[in-house]
Amino acid sequence: MAMVSIKDVAALAGVSPGTVSNVLNRPGKVAPATRERVEAAISELGFVRHGSASTLRAGHSRTIGLSVIDIGNPFFTEVAAGVEDVASELGYAVILGNSAGSTDKEDRNLRVLAEHRVRGVLITPSGEDPARLDRLREHGISVVLVDHPAHRPDQCAVAVDDVAGGRAAVAHLLGKGARSLAYVTGPLTIRQCVERREGAKMAMTGAGLDPAALRVVEAATMTAKAGEKAAGELAAAGLPEAVFCANDLLALGVLRALLRSGVRVPEDVVLMGYDDIDFAAASTVSLTSMRQPTYQLGRIATELLLDECDNPDTHAHQHIMFQPELVARESTQ
Amino acid sequence: MAMVSIKDVAALAGVSPGTVSNVLNRPGKVAPATRERVEAAISELGFVRHGSASTLRAGHSRTIGLSVIDIGNPFFTEVAAGVEDVASELGYAVILGNSAGSTDKEDRNLRVLAEHRVRGVLITPSGEDPARLDRLREHGISVVLVDHPAHRPDQCAVAVDDVAGGRAAVAHLLGKGARSLAYVTGPLTIRQCVERREGAKMAMTGAGLDPAALRVVEAATMTAKAGEKAAGELAAAGLPEAVFCANDLLALGVLRALLRSGVRVPEDVVLMGYDDIDFAAASTVSLTSMRQPTYQLGRIATELLLDECDNPDTHAHQHIMFQPELVARESTQ
DNA sequence: CCTGGGGATTAAAACGTTTCCACAGCGCGA
DNA sequence: TCGCGCTGTGGAAACGTTTTAATCCCCAGG
Prior knowledge:
By secondary structure, the first copy, chain A, is of the alpha/beta class. Helices cover 47% and strands 16% of the residues of chain A. In chain A, helix 5 packs parallel to helix 13 (294-310) and helix 8 packs across helix 9 (191-206). The interface between A and B is large, with 58 and 58 residues.
């Protein structure tokens, strides 16, 4: 409980508190001899700077917020790893928020972040209401969208083209000869799910099929468990020849349920997922999927955010859009 | 950038800043009429409390730190989900730190947490040096160990019995008739890896085998990629009849490498992992594993920590030790 | 009518830093 | 020798909140 402050350090080193602050923040401005004395005092007393006091006075913190939809999904985990790496390199702390797909929870998390006066926020928004994010900006908190296109021009965003992804996926399935298709999706409040569906329909149209014939099964969450349930619904109404899932977790669940009930993949049903998480390649029947530069998404978004924070004058807002890449495996052989 | 402070609210509501602070922190202490007026002013101005100022004055924050070894490992992800849920229920923010197995990085993270004056820290330590954690305690920061037994009596810890787990695992493999065994482990600086090995040796001794005959392959990280590499080493010196991996990621990697080189699991080699992550059941050959109450680990540890912070006088330190549970699947059929 | 007590509110100090301004000392050119 | 500018340091105010002690007001009891 030995609360040692900058004053104690100053006293021990025989300088003023202002000087200690200088060696902490602009070591160049202080004479080498003094600096050494201060540094000695710091380590002798085991001083650690009080971040809150610093934030209060300086008006900004060295903390960023990260709000994701499902921390249990390897996709977001990998994004988080990228974020954490960059943040930690630059001495920033990351406050993690898991919205679990609920905008209420997301709002609560954003509120916490606002109270903490984080420097900026990285967010994969759960809903489509830009107003909440604008409120953050009014408080001087930069926002970078992750895996989501920009809401406005004066904002950075790093996304992956989900329409193209959905289109490529379904084109691949059609190429395997499938004519009846189902799309197993998460909540259609999630943009990614909607856009992948649009892409899917475009692919059908492109192949001369009626896009309305796409059977859509909407799961409550994007988890393997929900995928198993969705497979039940699918089977109840007669299995299609191909199933496209909005992410790999759903696909893994569908796969498990199909195999358990004796349906062969890909012989009876061709199946693919999305995200290309590590486990897609390792599953019972290895899973065809759409690969996204996940870790890079996190890294780049963080670099953009921190650049916006640290160099507000030279910073140029960027809208980055990656293209996903199809990885074909056994499930669509 | 409209920095609206408690004073602005006070002015608008026609009360003093102290009263506003009271409606924020002890609404019961203020007359209903006044409270309403203040609340109206708060929402009219869009006031959000400055957490740093609050922390500075109050001497403690509503933030906890979470330091894990590998955020990419579903085991820790699930722990983190449990932590996040409890923290968010109680209005705490979580600062995430990923040590990536490096004590240096862990130290840096702990330093950041100390600067933030977090209320407490949940940590799965990378190394075995309790001194660094004691330093946190000297700063008044409570520490709860996660998936690690307590260093000292006046400390909470939530762990799983890794010796028992290792023993049960290898007993199971021996029960399948295997007589030559290998243990594919992560760095032996990680306690879990060491204890699972000890358990494994105990099982061998118990079966009348020489524990020294256990072939130990130490991988640099506990990832699937490292597992693939380890399988190479294993094969180079002649495959054993059974392989026990220190976690499922390693096991998945070993499995992939074995199958690719034409080795059949479980016919040629029986294989098992540890943690029972979701994907263990979904893999090519479904994986036998040791299940741990992962999400609960996170929840309980957080509840313990927050109880220690919020009720320091009535709080009783607890050392909780769960028993892992064997889940048999195809890989050891 | 006076006194006392209790609830509601206020005023002011304090938390630990950062930052702005002033000032001291020094070297250098005039 | 004087003055100027430059560098390094000190002093003090300020950041937004919480908290303690003090004050105010009102009402009940005597």
